[in-house]
Automatic annotation (TrEMBL), chain A:
Basic and acidic residues compositional bias, start-end: 62-71, 212-244, 276-285, 298-352, 460-469
Family, similarity comment: Belongs to the NOP14 family.
Region (Disordered): 1-44, 62-93, 161-244, 257-401, 418-469
Name by which UniProt lists this protein: Nucleolar complex protein 14
Stretches with biased composition (Acidic residues): 165-180, 353-372, 428-451
InterPro entries: Nop14 (IPR007276)
Organism per entry: Discina gigas
Range of residues in the leader sequence: none
Annotated localization: Nucleus, Nucleolus
Keywords, alphabetical: Nucleus, Ribosome biogenesis, rRNA processing
Biased composition (Polar residues): 30-39
Automatic annotation (TrEMBL), chain B:
Bias (Basic and acidic residues): 21-31
Record-given protein name: Maturation and nuclear export of 40S ribosomal subunits interacting protein
Region named Disordered: 1-41
Family: Belongs to the CBF/MAK21 family.
């Protein structure tokens, strides 16, 4: 770099061959001569330009590095030529954007594709010459100008052939058929050639050039042949079509459609069924001649066809009819349905559905920051202080009614002719989406059938429950009114049923349900929903009327009606149940229960799935039951009986889910200990034990035989003998319950712990102190119970294994050692071990870069456009001014001339 | 009746009248009402006249006897009793002021006799008043109490022996307290009044009260029936003492009867004014009371207040130990409550209780999860078992016992037990074998043949020897299938990985059936509840044909008949 700027310039100029001694004379080649002068000038300019740039220090921009980083290599963009890149950008824009700008708002235009038009290096003479040769060559190549098959010069429209000689068929719809035709023709030609054994190519192969006349002859022959072939093909097609037309009626029949009534002709004729509306003499005549021709003659054929086609467009797609199913299929379907329902039940039993409601996540959040602390995750509520909160279930039940009933719209029970609610044939509303559609599809008809079945029942005198009528001898159902208003409050219900015997209630309810079927009126939905809660209230009311002997026959039917209603209005019915439970919980859980309460629990057990992990009605009901069992001391035989009933319900509820109910076994053991003729000391197990003031211990009774305990036993006044009978029966029932519990919880891990005390209690009952008082049949029962207990216990002991609850993968110990990169590379951008994440980051960076680039480019484009516009504006305004100046000058000249003329005239 | 005496003492009474005017006024309403039924007995006016006569001249002292008769012998006429006793009170007060009741050296024989006689009447009168405390009518009781307290004040003011500036009529007050405590008809309102107006207001009354109660307690109680009544009332009064003197709390600094101490030097000597004396007396009173045979409810109420109110008043709380240990040894709920007091002693007074853990273990009875004090017990249990230095065998016994109890516990108790056991297992990792014990192949073979023999001995008293460490917590596994969904969910934590450090037991303590029910019922129905899809064929009746088949699946039908 020791040389001066000037010296370097000179040197480079010389190196580029611009100054100094010229290069030796160019070798004399013709090609060079033609373009040499031009190209050398161009080269010179380029070279000069580059030298200029090289020596302009402002053209190069370098970014100075603050710190030198070893091993990084060259940094991109450390040295740049802003001028150059700007220039390149400008040029690019001129080439693209400017052109676009100029073409904006302009349509059409001619693109000059003449040879060499845009080539500045060609002289006009050369251009002309080239064009001429091109044209000549084209002529020679396109020799077969009269060839009809010629592909090259075919007229096209949008790339499609304009059809040439196929115009006579003239049907645009056949366009695609044309191609087929073409192919067919070609194929036929080939076949013919094969037959003659001569190859068309072979014929043309001889070197001798054909004379023009020959060629022309050949061409003409060929075209004639083609024409003939085309005609033949067309005829074939016509034939085919006619055949199809003849079969049209069959097709109509196949389509399963009624023939459009407008269409006359072969359809009716073929079926030999004279259509009444069309029996006209004209038809008679017409049937003799070809109907096609006739219609053709009438000029209707096409119109008819078109109209048919158009009609078909609007036809519904045919739906496959429901195939009659075979017996096996029905069984299969039924079993599939049951399987699905069972699966759903299992899911609910495991509590999987409610996972979003009860988040079981004890470890999640900080210790005691939350309102309920650790207990918060378990949905236990606020604990005892919450007990004082007023219950708000009763305030506005209508709010809960707003939900849609689509799902359960069809949840009606078939009431067959005898009025017996048939559970199995009932449509059910469940939560399967796939089933829903089927239901709504087929539901309408069945619903109508359901109504149709029921409507006549209003006309003929019919009893609600036939076997009941047998029992009672006669029924006055025929004296019942046929129409009832839909009661919206229990008061209304009472008014309606005021003088109706309880046994006729099912009929009344059934009639109310039919009369206010949701299909009949829009408001009936809400009415029936309200009615369902009234019905529940009434059921309890009826049961409470005669606690000793509630009319179970109508009650059963009523509960089934309620069940059916609850399918349609689950929320309303559930709310009603919950209201009753709240009432029961707040008012009656410290004393005796009423018959209505027991019926309520029974109804819950049948209407709702009791095996669910959580259920809006069953869970509160269980809480109430267990609270009663656990907290109300069994002070009297009545209470013991109620408790026994509740325990039975517990067993019933847990039949499927087999959950553990400590209160149930506690109650059974406590009741047995209380009933035992002699107190047991020490008491086995840990069940709570309240000695009652009233003597509950079983007394002696003669001739007691095994009998089922009756509901009436709970509410009967009892003295002496009768009391003892009840006690014995109770004890018998309790023993049965104990066995039920054994079966229910067999296989549980803590089986032994639960039932060992029971074995001791039973042993005590069989012991010396108690033996005397118990009757023989009861002792037998005790012995069987003991045997069963011992069997189960032995088995449980044998199958007992230690707990192995913690087969968890051991947790990794957290490490806090900082992470070092073994092979660090400055160029490597990320060390993310997660490939997907790394890729994503890369993509994001790229996107960002691109975005920035695009923004930059757009800005530059904008400024370019502005610049160009300004330039143009300046240009136009300059032109305008120049023009105006010119005009002014011209006018002035003319004026001057005129003035001179005038002066001259004047002077003259 | 003593002989009637005629004495003359003519001093002006106008001044006294003025002083007692206010009292008179207030009493007047009552006496006016009692005016009518004066057939044999004197009417209200006559009573007033008698009173005036008594005060007027010593000659009329015999009228005292008349009035006294009225007070003593009018059970059917409470108004008369009240008026006459009020009049007598006024009369005696004036006489005291006059000095007629106090003996003077200058008195001659006759005067001395009069004083003695008057004093006897005074005693009679106070006795009668005490008797009135057992009157059926609460109004009479209130009046009697007020009069007695007034007499106490006057007594202290005017009958004080020479030289004793801080005289308090302990004897009189003691009589009143005795009557109060033994009165079987005593109304609650009177008791309240006594507590709020006197006991909780004045130091000297308290002091005297302590003396009275302790002497009464140390006297051999008369019979079982009166004893229980005595303890009931005395304890309720003692417990009702507001702000008793403790190490921190000072005296009330207000006296009822005794005048202000003349100088600070004297004050320091008088026991009645000093806190240590008060405390010592109070402690003695308590001890004497606690030595009496107490009924269970009394013991419970005492134990409930033990750590908060009684123990802090003691100069030496360790003296309570006997009582607490006895209560603790009694077992049951009493022991549960005694725990609190014991804990107080152990924690603050360094009490060493050798058989503490066995006794604690013995507390885990069948009832412990059902009683009202469950949460209190668990709080203490958490404290007692909180140490990591306890032997694993002991902890295992407690865990196993709790698990066993959970089998018969209400859901609200299971909810406590599970996190509690979790915390214990977390703190004592050697106990985790109870939830996870994978045997060797040899073991498995043995188990397959004979089943696993549970080593836990539920009857063993010593928690170190129960063998619980070798057992397993099958009971908690049972809880995972509890009918209450939330309980089942909580029970599952035992089977999951023990990642949480500990559960705050406090959050699980306050639950009950009611709170659980409310929590459930307050959840709004978000999605329609699932309804059983098949309407059952039979709810109450089984058809004859299917009877047997149904009985298999329907417990209700198989056990109950609904005809």
């Amino acid at each position: 770099m020791g040389e001066s700027q000037l010296k370097r310039l000179k040197a480079s100029l010389r190196a580029a061959g611009i100054t100094g001694q010229q290069k030796p004379k160019k070798p004399s080649t013709k090609a060079k001569q033609s373009t040499g002068k031009n190209s050398s000038r161009l080269d010179r300019n380029v070279a000069l330009q580059s030298i200029r740039e090289e020596f302009n220090p402002f053209e190069i921009k370098t970014t100075r590095e603050k710190h030198d980083i070893s091993g990084r290599g060259r940094v991109k963009g450390a040295q740049g030529r802003p001028g150059l890149s700007k220039q390149i950008g400008e040029d690019n824009r001129k080439r693209t954007l400017l052109v676009e700008m100029q073409h904006r708002n302009k349509a059409g235009g001619i693109i000059d594709r003449r040879f060499g038009e845009n080539d500045p290096t060609m002289t006009p003479e050369e251009k002309m010459l080239e064009r001429f040769t091109k044209e000549k060559q084209k002529r020679v190549r396109g020799g077969d100008i009269f060839n009809l098959d010629g592909d090259e010069d075919q007229l096209t429209h949008f790339g499609k052939s304009l059809g040439g000689d196929d115009f006579d068929t003239g049907n645009e719809m056949m366009l695609s058929d044309d191609d087929m035709l073409e192919k067919r023709l070609k194929k036929r030609r080939l076949d013919e050639n094969a037959e003659t054994g001569s190859d068309p190519d072979e014929e043309t192969r001889p070197e001798r050039k054909k004379s023009k006349a020959e060629v022309m002859k050949e061409v003409i022959a060929k075209s004639k042949l083609h024409k003939y072939e085309r005609q033949k093909a067309k005829e074939d097609d016509e034939e085919e079509r006619e055949k199809l037309d003849a079969q049209m009626t069959d097709i109509w029949a196949l389509l399963g459609r009624q023939q459009p009534s407008r269409i006359s002709g072969p359809g009716t004729g073929a079926n030999m069924e004279p259509v009444p509306g069309r029996d006209e003499p004209k038809d008679e005549v017409n049937t003799n001649i070809n109907p096609d021709r006739l219609s053709q003659m009438e000029g209707k054929e096409d119109a008819k066809y078109d109209s048919r086609v158009r009609e078909m467009v609007f036809d519904k797609r045919s739906q496959p009819a429901e195939r009659t199913k075979t017996a096996e299929e029905k069984v299969l379907e039924e079993s599939e349905r049951l399987r699905k329902l069972e699966e759903a039940r299992q899911r609910r039993m495991r509590g999987e559905e409610d996972s979003e409601d009860e988040q079981v996540d004890g470890d999640a959040d900080g210790d005691d920051e939350l309102e309920f602390g650790d207990a918060a995750g378990y949905g236990l509520g606020r604990g005892i202080p919450a007990a004082v909160l007023p219950d708000r279930t009763g305030d506005n039940p209508d709010e809960l009614l707003d939900g849609d009933y689509e799902v359960s719209e069809d949840g009606y029970v078939d009431v067959d002719e005898d009025g017996v609610v048939d559970g199995s044939s009932a449509e059910f509303s469940d939560d399967f989406d796939e089933d829903e559609e089927v239901e709504t599809g087929s539901g309408d008809e069945e619903e109508d059938d359901f109504l149709a079945d029921l409507m006549p029942s209003k006309n003929g005198p019919r009893d609600s429950v036939p076997d009941l009528s047998k029992l009672r001898g006669d029924s006055n159902a025929d004296q019942l009114a046929f129409t009832f208003p839909c009661p919206q409050t229990h008061q209304e219900m009472l008014e309606i049923t005021d003088d109706i015997p309880v046994t006729d209630l099912p009929t009344v309810v059934q009639r109310i349900r039919v009369l206010h079927h949701p299909k009949l009126h829009a408001e009936n939905k809400t009415k029936l929903a309200e009615f369902s809660s009234v019905l529940l209230e009434h059921i309890i009311y009826i049961a409470n009327l005669a606690p000793a002997s509630p009319p179970f026959v109508p009650l059963e039917t009523l509960i089934r009606h309620l069940h059916a209603l609850s399918k349609s209005y689950p929320e309303r019915v559930a709310t009603a149940f919950r209201t009753h439970l709240t009432d029961l919980h707040s008012n009656r859980t410290t004393g005796d229960l009423t018959a209505g309460d027991l019926v309520l629990f029974t109804a819950i057990g049948t209407i709702f799935p009791t095996s669910d992990h959580f259920h809006q009605v069953v869970t509160p009901a269980m809480i109430v039951i267990c609270k009663w069992l656990g907290q109300v001391p069994p002070a009297s035989i009545e209470r013991l009986g109620m408790g026994t009933y509740l325990v039975t319900l517990c067993v019933q509820y847990q039949k499927l889910s087999k959950r553990f109910v400590p209160e149930a076994i506690n109650y059974v053991l406590q009741a047995l200990s209380l009933l035992a003729p002699a107190p047991q000391t020490p008491l086995p197990g840990n069940f709570p034990y309240h000695e009652s003031e009233e003597g509950l211990r079983v007394g002696k009774i003669k001739g007691w035989t095994v009998r089922k305990i009756t509901f009436a036993d709970l509410f009967r006044e009892r003295e002496g003998e009768h009391k003892r009978d009840t006690e014995h029966t109770l004890m018998y029932t309790l023993l049965c319950l104990l066995e039920e519990l054994l079966v229910l919880w067999a296989g549980k891990k803590a089986f032994t712990e639960v039932f060992e005390p029971a074995a001791e209690v039973v042993a005590h009952l069989l012991g010396r102190e108690c033996k005397g008082t118990l009757s023989k049949s009861l002792k037998n029962k005790l012995k069987t119970t003991q045997a069963v207990l011992n069997t189960y216990l032995t088995r449980a002991r044998l199958t007992r294994r230690p707990l192995e609850l913690h087969h968890h993968r051991p947790l990794a110990i957290k490490t806090y050692i900082p992470k070092f990169e073994e092979s660090y590379n400055a160029d490597k951008r990320s060390y993310d071990p997660d490939k997907d994440r790394a890729q994503l980051a890369k993509l994001k960076a790229e996107h960002k870069r691109e975005r920035k680039g695009a923004i930059r480019e757009l800005r530059k484009d904008n400024s370019f456009v502005a610049r160009e516009k300004l330039k143009e504006d300046k240009k136009t305004s300059k032109e305008y001014h120049a023009k105006m100046a010119k005009l002014t000058a011209m006018i002035q000249t003319e004026e001057g001339t005129a003035a001179n003329e005038y002066k001259r005239q004047k002077n003259r | 009746m003593p002989a009637q005496l005629i004495t003359v003492d003519s001093k002006s009474v106008s001044k006294k009248r003025k002083r007692t005017g206010a009292v008179e006024k207030s009493r007047k309403d009552g006496s006016n009402k009692a005016a009518k039924p004066a057939s044999s007995a004197p009417s209200a006016e006559e009573v007033l006249e008698l009173e005036a006569a008594i005060v007027e001249s010593p000659q009329n002292y015999n009228k005292i006897v008349v009035l006294l008769e009225c007070v003593q012998n009018s059970p059917g006429n409470p108004e008369l009793a009240v008026t006459s006793s009020v009049s007598l009170c006024r009369a005696f007060c004036r006489l005291m002021v006059k000095g007629s009741l106090s003996r003077r050296k200058t008195d001659d024989e006759a005067q001395a006799t009069i004083v003695v006689w008057l004093r006897d009447r005074y005693k009679d009168y106070t006795r009668a008043l005490c008797g009135l405390l057992n009157h059926q009518d609460p109004a009479v009781q209130t009046a009697a109490l007020a009069l007695l307290m007034r007499l106490v004040r006057e007594d202290a003011a005017h009958l004080k022996p020479v030289g004793d500036e801080l005289y308090f009529p302990h004897a009189l007050f003691g009589k009143a307290v005795k009557a109060l405590v033994y009165a079987e008809e005593l109304d609650e309102s009177v008791k309240d009044e006594f507590v709020t107006k006197y006991l909780n207001q004045h130091d000297d009354i308290r002091y005297s009260f302590y003396i009275a109660v302790s002497s009464l307690a140390s006297e051999a109680p008369l019979s079982a029936s009166t004893l229980s009544h005595f303890t009931d009332t005395a304890l309720s009064l003692m417990v009702a003492l507001d702000r008793p003197p403790t190490a921190e709390a000072d005296l009330l600094d207000s006296n009822y009867a005794i005048g202000d101490p003349p100088s600070s030097s004297r004050k320091s000597k008088a026991a009645i004014l000093q806190k240590p004396a008060h405390r010592k007396l109070l402690q003695e009173t308590w001890l004497s009371l606690l030595r009496l045979p107490l009924s269970p409810p009394n013991t419970k109420s005492l134990l409930l207040t033990m750590s908060s109110r009684i123990a802090p008043t003691f100069l030496r709380p360790t003296l309570l130990m006997d009582f607490l240990v006895d209560a603790y040894a009694a077992g049951g709920t009493t022991a549960l409550l005694a725990l609190n007091g014991l804990f107080y002693l152990i924690a603050t007074k360094n009490l060493d209780y050798p058989n503490f853990y066995p006794a604690l273990y013995a507390l885990l009875t069948r009832d412990v999860l059902h009683v009202r004090y469950r949460s209190r017990f668990f709080r203490l249990l958490e404290t007692f078992l909180g140490s990591t230095h306890l032997p694993a065998a002991l902890i295992a016994s407690f865990i196993k016992r709790l698990a066993r109890l959970s089998l018969s516990a209400p859901p609200s108790a299971v909810v406590v037990i599970v996190p509690f056991v979790y915390n214990l297992l977390k703190k004592h990792p050697s106990c985790t074998f109870m939830v996870h014990r994978a045997g060797t192949g040899e073991d498995r073979e043995r188990w397959r043949k004979t089943g696993l023999l549970d080593c836990f001995d539920a009857g063993e008293v010593d928690p170190m020897k129960t063998g619980a460490l070798e057992s397993c917590l099958w009971e908690l596994e049972m809880g995972m299938t509890h009918w209450q969904p939330n309980v089942a969910t909580i029970a599952r934590i035992v089977g999951e990985q023990f990642t949480k450090e500990r559960y705050g037991i406090e959050d699980f303590l306050d639950h009950s059936y009611a709170s659980m029910f409310n929590a459930e019922i307050q959840k709004s129905i978000k999605k329609p509840p699932v309804v059983e899809f098949d309407i059952p064929k039979k709810i109450f009746f089984g058809t004859e044909v299917e009877e047997d088949a149904l009985a298999q699946e329907n417990t209700l039908l198989s056990l109950w008949s609904f005809e």
